[in-house]
Amino acid sequence: MLVAILGWAAGAGARAQIAAVGDGGPGPVKAQHLTAELVALGPAIAPGGTQEVGLVLTIEEHWHVYWTNAGDSGEPPHIAWTLPAGVTAGAMQFPIPSRLPLGPLLDMGYETVGAFRGTIAAASSV
């Protein structure tokens, strides 16, 4: 269940904090300047198994989200999980970012769409 997506987005030289809170239901969550969706990359997870998941951020034009090492400013997106006992989530994996120059600054991040993978693991006796 996706509980929160937090990060920094910037556009036209301004910085604005974004936050989205999911209710655990299916479908995308709309936040200021982006839409976030958590998708499973395979069938349901079985006890003792793992499941690849992806956080997909669709970003409004003229906005971006930052990479794990943003550069001159910003913070990367992250997920705060609420999971049942015996289920754990691994670290989010960041794809290769784009250069986001703005005047004398150079940031690293994603425009249009950012897709971040992670792994969910279930204990053998959940």
> Percent of residues in helical segments?
under 10%
Provide the low-confidence segments as ranges.
1-21
The counted number of beta strands is 11
Large-scale geometry: elongated
Oligomer: single chain
Mean pLDDT: 77
> How far is it from the N-terminal to the C-terminal residue, by CA?
16 Å
Radius of gyration: 16 Å
The total count of helices amounts to: 0
Proportion of residues in β-strands? over 45%
Class computed from helices, strands and strand pairing = mainly beta
Q: Could you describe the largest sheet, including whether it forms a barrel?
A: 6 strands, antiparallel
Strand and helix order: EEEEEEEEEEE
List the helices and strands and how they pair.
Layout: E1 2-11, E2 14-21, E3 29-31, E4 34-40, E5 50-59, E6 64-71, E7 78-81, E8 87-89, E9 98-102, E10 105-110, E11 113-122
Antiparallel strand pairs: 1-2, 1-6, 1-7, 3-4, 4-5, 5-11, 6-10, 8-11, 9-10
What does this structure look like?
This protein is mostly beta strands. Helices cover 0% and strands 59% of the residues. It contains no helices and eleven strands.
Quick tags:
5-stranded antiparallel sheet; elongated; 126 residues; mainly beta; 6-stranded antiparallel sheet
Concise synopsis of the structure shown:
0% of the residues lie in helices and 59% in strands. With 126 residues, it is mainly beta. The strands form 2 sheets. Strands 1, 2, 6, 7, 9 and 10 form a 6-stranded antiparallel β-sheet that branches. Strands 3-4-5-11-8 form a 5-stranded antiparallel β-sheet, with no helix packed on it.
